[in-house]
Amino acid sequence: MKGCAGVKGLDGEKGSIGPMGPFGPKGDKGTKGEKCVPTPRIAFFVTRTSRFGPVQQDTNIEFDKVFLNEGNSFDEHSSQFVCTVNGTYLFNAHVLSQEDKDAFVTIMLNEQPRIPMHGDHRSGFGVASNTAMFHLTVGDKVYLRLKKDSAISNDSSTFSGYLIHVTD
C-alpha cells in the first residue's frame, strides 16, 4: 500500500556534463552549387593637361591623360565612357573654372543632361564636383559637356567611374 506524497526536498548540486554521445548517421550529399563567374573589372580615371574654353557652343570635354582604363570602357578618342557590361556604375566629376570664366558642366547620359555642376569664378577659381550613379546597359555612353561660354582649367578637372555590380 502506498502512502501520501511527502514534502519536496531541496535541489541538490548540479552534476558534471556527461560524455559526448555517438555521432549520428551521415547525411545525404547536397546538390552541386553554381559555377563562380568572376565579376568584370571596369574602372577609369582621366584628366586634362591643358585649359579648355571658353567654348562657342555646348561641347563635350576632351580628356587627354588617362591614369586608369581597366576594362577599356573609356573611349580615349571620344572621351566617353561606353558601357560594355550591363550594371550599376558610379561616376565622379570634378572641374575647376578658369580664373575669369565660370564652368558650367553637365554629366551626360546618351545625349541627355543628367547632373549639372557650376564652378563660379568670382572666388578666383570655381570648383564644381558631383557624383552620379546610373544603371547602364551595353552601348550607353556617359561623358561631360561644357556649356557655351564657359571654361575649365587644366589637370584639376577630372572624370572617373567604375562598375559597382553586374545586372542582367
TrEMBL record:
<dbReference type="InterPro" id="IPR050392">
    <property type="entry name" value="Collagen/C1q_domain"/>
</dbReference>
<protein>
    <submittedName>
        <fullName>C1QT6-like protein</fullName>
    </submittedName>
</protein>
<dbReference type="InterPro" id="IPR001073">
    <property type="entry name" value="C1q_dom"/>
</dbReference>
<dbReference type="Pfam" id="PF00386">
    <property type="entry name" value="C1q"/>
</dbReference>
<feature type="region of interest" description="Disordered">
    <location>
        <begin position="1"/>
        <end position="34"/>
    </location>
</feature>
<keyword id="KW-0964">Secreted</keyword>
<feature type="domain" description="C1q">
    <location>
        <begin position="37"/>
        <end position="168"/>
    </location>
</feature>
<dbReference type="InterPro" id="IPR008983">
    <property type="entry name" value="Tumour_necrosis_fac-like_dom"/>
</dbReference>
